[in-house]
Amino acid sequence: MKQNGFSLIELLVVVAVLGIITTIAYPPYLSHLQGGYRLDAQRILLEQSHLLERSYSRQGEYPANLNINSSSHYDFSYQRVEAQTDAYLLTATPKTTGFPCGSLTLNQQGIKTAEGGDRCWAD
After folding, report:
1. How far is Cα 113 from Cα 108, in angstroms, rounded to an integer?
2. Domain encompassing residue 20
């Protein structure tokens, strides 16, 4: 008599192998995804900076307020330095914890900073 199906030992071996593969592969995959989200946030900050520079060249000052839509993984904020109308700070803050670079900032001089250090901004 021939039996169809898998034995319990075979199923346990398959589950163990899948667990090992997942343990090894998931952290680099997650890091790769976070890097892509960070690049999107950097792109948005740079686009907004270009728009602000265009506005400054036309009006001689940066706008008092700027509405930047959030992405699925980052919130964006704009802050004009109140003491002077020719300075601003753009910030991208991750919506969840676990992003190694943390918040990204860009100012009117093009100075890029990140909580995780200089390696977080792509050139």
Report:
1. 12
2. 8-120
On whether the CB atoms of residues 64 and 91 are closer than 8 A, the answer is no
Task: Report pLDDT digits (tens) over 18-37.
Answer: 999 999 999 899 889 988 99
| Nearest by Cα to 64 from 43, 42, 84 | 84
CB atoms within 10 A of CB 83: 6
24 within some domain: yes
Residues 6+ apart with CB under 8 A from 39: 122
End-to-end CA distance of the chain: 67
CA dihedral of residues 34, 38, 39, 44 (deg, nearest 10): 140
> Within a domain: residue 17?
yes
DSSP type of residue 123: -
In DSSP terms, 78 is beta-bridged to 90
pTM: 0.80
What distance in Å separates the CA atoms of residue 50 and residue 47, rounded to the nearest whole number? 5
- Alpha-carbon distance of 108 to 51, in angstroms, equals 11
